[in-house]
């Protein structure tokens, strides 16, 4: 489920990137077309405007008040002022023509300007001629005939330039219309195609964010309701997050825990060792089950109570930061159940199943190192008559008293178990013949001195100075049972060492 969700999220992110790229591309194209539209319009408008201004100046410099006007007045009146005006107008005409030639012109426009310039030069030559002495004696009519110039070509050329200007403006308008339509098409494409996709991607992102929020909410709920304690801490051991179970386990509030280090939850004698273990886990993503690794972890409750714990630890590296996640489980109840499962509920010593398992372990160890091992099988004499006469409550009390006596008499390393009814087994590691027999006889003697209701002990003893592969738990118990049978047959209240012939006699 989560894998599919992450695949969907990855596909959505890819779609979002592609949509954003398409949106960016669309915006870029739209802006470029708008800029091109504006640039073309400015360029054409500026060029046509400049051409129109120069053409108007040319018309003005050649027409009324310009070069030709002053030229004709000079012919009629021979006034030097008109000559000066004609010369000035001629210079201005040449300047206008020169400025027009610098513009971007068509071949037709160049031909038209050439025609105008040719006519102007003809006028200029006539102006130079009429200034000579030979022309001064001529009448106005004769002079007018001599200087008359055919300027129809120049007029047609000017009309051609005006028509070209109008055509250029018309073409500019057509181009602008085309570019405007292309720009509008691009904008409409974005409005009707890209924008819905962007909206769809936005909706899908909102759905994904909602699902992520739900996922985080579910995990937060799971984090809080899990029965095990969960702690997050940084590489210095500072607690940065805990759940409700952690508060209940250690007795601190969440606000208090977030001001503490994880070592504050460990009894003082174990703290330095725990710091070493925690630092060893940093940078490792593998889970570590401390109890399963043979590490005894003890926690400290706010009230000072020590708590046996089982801890699973995971270390996570995020960039330059390392975090540890600890799942802490209170195993007090498990240890109590385990203790009950291996103990006899009446007497408190090991039950038969666990005592047999410990006997096998001791035999294996003694065999590995070739060490001595002894076993005592103890029967409480006269127990049945006591039960029949005084009742089971008194009988139970007698069994408890016997186990207390055995616990006080045996060594801490000895294993004491209830074998069944009023029979008890004692496993004595590192104990040879002479030592175990002395111990058994002391048990018989001291118990008889302190017991009530005429209860005594019969003990069958088996001892191995060196345990080998041929020794097993069943044979060991059978041999002790044979020795116990001999002790009871001899009158009870005594300890008997196993000898091979006892097995033959019991069979």
Short description:
By secondary structure, the chain is of the alpha+beta class.
Structural description of this entry:
- This protein has 507 residues and is of the alpha+beta class.
- Helices cover 63% and strands 15% of the residues.
- It contains 16 helices and eleven strands.
- The protein has helices at residues 2-62, 67-77, 80-101, 107-129, 140-147, 152-225, 244-250, 254-257, 271-281, 332-342, 352-369, 383-390, 392-409, 433-450, 473-489, 500-506, and strands at residues 229-234, 239-242, 288-289, 297-300, 306-318, 321-330, 373-381, 415-420, 423-429, 456-464, 494-497.
- β5 (306-318) and β6 form a beta hairpin.
- α1 (2-62) packs antiparallel against α3 (80-101), α2 packs antiparallel against α5 (140-147) and α3 runs antiparallel to α4.
- The longest helix is centred in the middle third of the chain and has 74 residues, at 152-225.
- The mean pLDDT is 80.
List keywords for this structure.
507 residues; alpha+beta; six-stranded antiparallel sheet; five-stranded mixed sheet; 16 helices; 11 strands; 15% strand
